[in-house]
Specification:
Blueprint: H1 13-26, H2 38-45, H3 57-79
């Protein structure tokens, strides 16, 4: 997923970077992590739990839906 990370016109760059890292770690599901966020993945598998299998077609469709929603949300924010 492409994320516009242009900070040239940002007033508070440290806050912007901190928010992006939080989003990346806590909200953005990763296909490589079976459509879990990095935080969810760590919590679920850090205590020696069985590692997940590759994503199914259902997970792929979930990923596509999340990407579509994220793009719509981003476009909405840009309009405001």
């Amino acid at each position: 997923m492409f994320v516009d990370f242009d900070v040239r016109h940002r007033q508070d760059v440290p806050s912007f970077v901190k928010e992006h890292i939080r989003f990346f770690d806590e909200e953005r599901p990763s296909y490589a992590l079976v459509c879990l966020t990095p935080k969810e993945y760590r919590e679920r598998y850090s205590e020696g739990g069985q590692q997940p299998k590759k994503p199914s077609k259902v997970a792929q469709k979930k990923k596509e839906k999340i990407i579509k929603e994220a793009k719509a949300k981003k476009e909405s924010k840009l309009k405001n």
